[in-house]
Each structure stands twice: as structure tokens, then as C-alpha cells.
């Protein structure tokens, strides 16, 4: 799919990987909508990028808020052609530790935002994509990109909730791609490794340094623009569909 003049929604687009996608795709001529619940950072980025980019304060777990945000995005760009799901949170909690037993609340919260939130936006955005005119020889109507994590495959100690949420995103990628294929809507998931974003800042510095050193090559944290670059390629390469792509410098995380 060509990007210029397309309607792009990025959840979690106010920070980190999502913000890099908003920047890159706006610069490529798309009309972008940032869906995020951080008003300060979302508004600042939309103002920086100008008229082609708007911010809508939204919690992806809330059906009505997502519906309202999609309507605003549709009004802003005329169509919804591309969705990038980046909204997500992390948690570090062991099942059993000196701190006690892993709470159900924290597990449920991570699943709610990362997995259910992603699904909530997919189901509502794909309904709008289905209304698009098919484009080009393939008759494409839309592209959905989700964000899992290497933790879906090599989760560390303390990542039961987070890995489960990301494993769920990996697991639903193919069935959703199969369902939406007849509409010409592609579904691809990126599983990033260790990227230098505010989310990772939640880990102790020693853990971040250790993780960066575990990356075989390049032995460093990834840059958000490198994630955005893959997302842009997925949008432009129609043969990519139904797959989860690791973007991780060949890291296979240690147990902790
Ligand atoms: C709402 C608050 C949020 C807090 C910040 C959350 C930030 C989360 C960021 C997530 C970013 C995700 C980015 C991404 O998608 C890519 C990644 O996943 S990067 C990997 C991120 N890694 C983690 O998130 C790890 C989370 N876990 C922890 O931080 C700690 O394990 C935890 C704080 C939960 C517990 O720490 P602590 O109680 O201090 O235990 P230890 O860490 O010291 O030890 C754990 C356990 O391991 C045993 N152990 C020691 N050495 C080894 C060894 N060589 N092999 C195996 N096991 C070892 C050690 O004995 C401990 O076992 P016990 O049973 O406790 O004795
Ligand atoms: N940074 C990394 O190393 C990796 C990150 N990821 C995933 O990439 C995605 C983006 O992460 P980062 O850019 O690193 O984090 P970030 O913390 O910089 O950005 C996440 C954004 O999501 C927003 N958000 C959180 N919950 C929300 C909700 N309920 N509704 C709407 N917006 C919400 C936050 O306000 C924030 O702006 C997340 O899903 C994360 O799990 C995956 C692998 C590695």
C-alpha cells in the first residue's frame, strides 16, 4: 500500500515506538491520528507535526473511547487505511517472591491493555477499513500492524503477565489475517527486542545495560526509528501477511 494521503492510526503513538511511526508516516505524506491516553505528550507531538497529525485522548481498553477516536480519525483523514497498535504497558512481578503472591489485578491489567486493547482497536478499525474502496491490482483495503515482543517467546523471570499478553497478540495474528483476507486487509505483528524507549526506562539501569549487551549484533538497544522503518516496509510490501517478525538483533533473552 502506498502511504501518501492515507489515513493512519497509531495507538500508543504519543511515545517511543508509536511516536516514531507517527513521525515517519506523517513525513511520508500520511494523515495521522495519535490514539493515546497521555494528553501532554500526544498533544505536543501532534502540534509539532502540524495539521496532518491530530491527537485524540483515548484508552484503548474502552470501547466508547476507541469508537469516538476512530470517528475523529475518519473525519481527519477521510478513510482509515493503516492501523499500528503500539499502546502497551509493562510489569515485572514474580508469581511467588518476598513481596508475596503475584496479584490477579496486575496480571489482568497487563492483559487488558496489551491484548484486549489491541483486539478492541482491531475489531473497530477493521469495520471502517472494510468500507474502503479496494486499491491497486490486489484490491487492498487496509493494513494492521500489531506489537508483540520477544518476551512472547523468551520471557524472563517476572514476565508471566507481560509474556502472556504478547503471546496472545502473536497467537491472534494469523486467524485475524485469515478472516480479513477476503476484504483485502493484511495483519502483521512485529516482535521487538530491546528498544530505547520510556517503557524500557522502567527497568533498572543494570538490567537495561545487561539486556543491551545480550544482543549479538548490533550489541545495543534498538532505536524507535528502526521499528518505524520496519512498520513502513510492512505497509508497502503487500506480500507480508499473517506473520510475526522479530526485530531484535538476534537476542534470545536469558532467564533473568
Ligand atoms: C508497574 C511497575 C512497573 C515496573 C517496571 C516494569 C518495566 C517492564 C519493562 C518491560 C519492557 C518490555 C520490553 C520488551 O518487550 C522486551 C523485554 O521483554 S526486555 C526484558 C524485560 N525483563 C523484565 O521485565 C524482567 C522482569 N523481572 C524482574 O525485573 C525481576 O525478576 C523481578 C523484579 C520481577 C524480581 O526480581 P528479584 O525479586 O530481585 O529477583 P531476582 O531478579 O534477583 O532473581 C530472580 C530469580 O532468578 C534466580 N536466579 C538468579 N540467577 C539466576 C540464573 N543465573 N539463572 C536462573 N535463575 C537465576 C534468583 O534466584 C531469583 O529466584 P528466587 O526464586 O527469587 O530465588
Ligand atoms: N521498548 C521496548 O523495548 C519494547 C516495547 N515493546 C512494545 O512496544 C509497544 C510500545 O512500547 P514503547 O514505545 O517502548 O513504550 P512507551 O511507554 O514509550 O509508549 C507506550 C505508549 O502507550 C500508551 N498507552 C499505554 N496504555 C494505554 C492505553 N490503555 N490506552 C492508550 N494508550 C496507552 C502510553 O501512554 C505511551 O504513550 C508496547 O506495546 C510494548 O509492549 C515490545 C518489545 C520491546
TrEMBL record:
Keywords: Oxidoreductase. Residues 6-197 form the Ketoreductase domain. InterPro entries: KR_dom, NAD(P)-bd_dom_sf, Sc_DH/Rdtase_CS, SDR_fam. GO terms for molecular function: oxidoreductase activity. The keyword Secreted does not apply. Coiled coil: none annotated. Pfam families: adh_short. Belongs to the short-chain dehydrogenases/reductases (SDR) family. This is 3-hydroxyacyl-CoA dehydrogenase. It comes from Ktedonospora formicarum.
Amino acid at each position: 500500500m502506498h502511504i501518501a494521503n492515507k489515513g493512519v492510526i497509531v495507538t500508543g503513538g504519543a511515545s517511543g515506538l508509536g511516536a516514531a511511526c507517527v513521525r515517519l508516516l506523517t513525513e511520508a505524506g500520511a494523515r495521522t491520528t495519535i490514539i493515546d491516553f497521555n494528553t501532554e505528550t500526544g498533544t505536543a507531538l501532534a502540534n509539532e507535526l502540524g495539521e496532518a497529525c491530530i491527537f485524540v485522548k483515548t484508552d484503548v481498553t474502552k470501547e466508547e473511547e476507541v469508537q469516538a477516536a476512530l470517528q475523529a480519525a475518519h473525519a481527519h483523514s477521510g478513510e482509515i487505511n493503516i492501523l499500528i497498535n503500539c499502546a502497551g504497558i509493562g510489569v515485572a512481578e514474580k508469581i511467588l517472591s518476598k513481596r508475596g503472591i503475584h496479584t490477579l489485578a496486575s496480571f489482568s491489567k497487563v492483559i487488558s491493555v496489551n491484548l484486549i486493547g489491541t483486539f478492541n482497536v482491531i475489531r473497530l478499525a477493521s469495520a471502517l477499513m472494510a468500507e474502503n474502496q479496494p486499491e491497486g491490482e490486489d484490491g487492498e483495503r487496509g493494513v494492521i500492524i500489531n506489537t508483540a515482543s520477544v518476551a512472547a517467546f523468551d520471557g524472563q523471570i517476572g514476565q508471566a503477565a507481560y509474556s502472556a499478553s504478547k503471546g496472545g497478540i502473536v497467537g491472534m495474528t494469523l486467524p485475524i489475517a485469515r478472516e480479513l483476507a477476503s476484504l483485502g486487509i493484511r495483519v502483521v505483528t512485529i516482535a521487538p527486542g530491546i528498544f530505547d524507549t520510556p517503557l524500557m526506562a522502567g527497568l533498572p539501569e543494570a538490567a537495561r545495560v545487561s539486556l543491551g549487551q545480550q544482543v549479538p549484533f548490533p550489541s545495543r538497544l534498538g532505536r524507535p526509528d528502526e521499528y518505524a522503518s520496519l512498520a513502513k516496509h510492512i505497509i508497502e510490501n503487500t506480500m507480508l501477511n499473517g506473520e510475526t517478525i522479530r526485530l531484535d538483533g538476534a537476542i534470545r533473552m536469558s532467564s533473568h
